[in-house]
Amino acid sequence: MRNSLHRSCWASLLAIPWAWLLAVPWVWLLAIPFAGAAHAGVQVLNDDAHFPEGPVWYQRKLYYVEYDRNTVMTWDGKTNHVFSAEKGCGQSAVAPTARGEFVTTCYDNGSIGRMSADGTVLPAYTHDKDGNKFLGPNDLAPDARGGIYFSASGHLGAAIDGKVFYIAADGTITQVAIDLHNANGLAVSADGRILYVVETEEHRLLRFSIAADGTLADRRVFVNLDELTHHAAPIWPDGVKVSSKGEIYIGQSPRDLHAALLGQIFVLNAQGGLLRTLTLPSPKVPNLAFSPDEKTIYVTALDQIDRPPYRGKVYSIPND
Q1: Which residues contact 11 (CB under 8 A, 6 or more apart)?
Q2: Domain residue extents for the chain
Q3: Rounded to 10 degrees, what is the CA torsion of 96, 58, 66, 166?
Q4: What local confidence, expressed as pLDDT, does residue 39 receive?
Q5: Span 43-318: which CATH code?
Q6: pLDDT digits (tens, 9 = 90+) for 177-225
Q7: How many CB atoms sit inside 10 A of residue 281's CB?
Q8: Using an 8 Å Cβ cutoff, are 184 and 151 in contact?
Q9: What is the pLDDT of residues 235-262, one digit of tens each?
Q10: What is the pTM of this model?
Q11: How many CB atoms within 10 Å of residue 47?
């Protein structure tokens, strides 16, 4: 098998026009023929998920959402169950709170949904303490203080009106970043000092310094994914997670099923250098979560990327 893959790789390379060959770095040319080869040890946890997103591991269960079904789901190691449902929400991510509840980003109705510990729907958050509304709530990032950051993507297209908000441990919500071009995934660094925020339309990951009160400063570009991959394909970054080692995992939501590097999660070091990639069988891999020991990654993925019901899967993959 290894020899046949080797021959296939070189056959693909020989078929590439030399002018293009000289323009693209060798490391990414070698990666492109293998873009569809899934990482060893991939397991399917749910083979009938409708736009799964925003996973988190909590108290021996995987929680995730199905956007097209308006549900929050759980996987207990054997089976998948509906934890909570709210029509019209358009759930995009879920996270537990310090108060024993859960919150979910309701992308469609512009709110932060709330659920009790048993999944009962509670009154939602609809604005921050200054009356600012949430346009396209997207992802969630808990911190060590009992607070949670969340992104509001803003309008699609050219508008640069995405934002980041912070829910303090007492439930107070404050706007902490503005003027983002499609704010998407976000994650707090292992030491709690940095917030990483994806700007999908700019193909990049930003970083902010976190102050003691949860506010943000020192905005800068951390990495551009197109530059990182030497423009082998347009990379539309989506979810982001940070391991206890400080490694940064970035999912992606491609818009072309014929593009290179489909199904790949990019793993970066704290300086923004590429360490490795993890490849899933599905082309779109928007988000992920770690197991408690971080030896396993749970990935939400889509096979049907351009129309409802956005059929996809939930996977587990060894973190190696």
Answers
A1: none
A2: 43-318
A3: 30
A4: 80
A5: 2.120.10.30
A6: 999 999 999 999 999 999 999 999 999 999 999 999 999 999 999 999 9
A7: 17
A8: yes
A9: 999 999 999 999 999 999 999 999 999 9
A10: 0.89
A11: 12
